[in-house]
Specification:
The protein is of the alpha/beta class. It has helices spanning 3-8, 23-34, 48-56, 71-85, 108-136, 157-177, 195-198, 210-220, 229-240, and strands spanning 14-18, 38-43, 60-65, 90-93, 139-144, 182-189, 192-193, 227-228, 251-254. Helix 5 links the parallel strand 4 and strand 5. It binds nicotinamide-adenine-dinucleotide.
Amino acid sequence: MKTSEKAVSGRPRVALVTGAAQGLGQGFATRLAKDKFHVIALDRVACVDTLAAIEAAGGKATDLCVDLSDPKAISDGVAKTLSHFGAVDVLVNNAGLIPNVEFEKIDLAQWRALMAVNLEAPFLLCQSVIPTMKSNGYGRIINVASNTVGLKIAGFVHYVASKGGLIGMTRALASEYGGFGITANAVAPGLTRTHGMMDPARRGPGGVTTDQEIAHMKTLQAIPRGGEVDDLVGAVSFLASDDSAFITGQTLVVDGGLWRI
Ligand SMILES: NC(=O)c1ccc[n+]([C@@H]2O[C@H](COP(=O)([O-])OP(=O)(O)OC[C@H]3O[C@@H](n4cnc5c(N)ncnc54)[C@H](O)[C@@H]3O)[C@@H](O)[C@H]2O)c1
């Protein structure tokens, strides 16, 4: 019997995915449900489409409405989940804000609002679920970073700082909890076609549209095409699985071969 089977005997394996209402989070939640996890789909809005897709595929999920910029809402949401399900076996810190702002125009309030969602919420969520993972001797933490940490890119100083912090936190958590059956890894997507990124109001560096950005990135990547949500879900599925038990502290870059580490 594998460690995870011992840890979860008599209850469903539980995966909590943040930012699960759309985009990458929706893809991760749907894939983990197919992998037989009971998915806790956390978002500030109801995860209506995600839950419908999971249920249509015969999977199981629970909606958890939490604003990740509110620490009390995070601790209440996790407490509710733990008391109902007994554990969170897999935590996918996916939710993130991706604004493009010239560095000299970022004010402190914007900086803090971004850090609250992109870095502080993953910190608080890890802290809330790790005690149970420790006592179960099993856990998978997957933090969604970004390939922008390794690229020349304009207008993302606060964003890149948050994602670099997330990669650093992942590495440090891996050291701290490797002896408890808990792994911590990051996934770093490249530019990926999601709801958030395709919002017509969104503009990338220098005011370009996302379509223009994708066209440019294609010329730089080893695999010359735009990234889709389906390109990312296998990486998260693998890092959430028993097969990744000896992999921790790593950053898996999924960007068509642009950033190589
Ligand atoms: N799409 C890309 O090109 C790309 C590239 C690199 C990294 N990423 C990272 O992947 C992750 C997902 O990106 P996406 O493109 O799917 O984004 P998206 O905007 O499509 O979805 C983000 C989700 O997070 C939720 N969210 C935002 N703030 C929240 C809050 N305060 N509380 C709860 N939920 C909140 C939103 O409601 C939304 O459902 C982000 O961390 C992003 O930085 C994306």
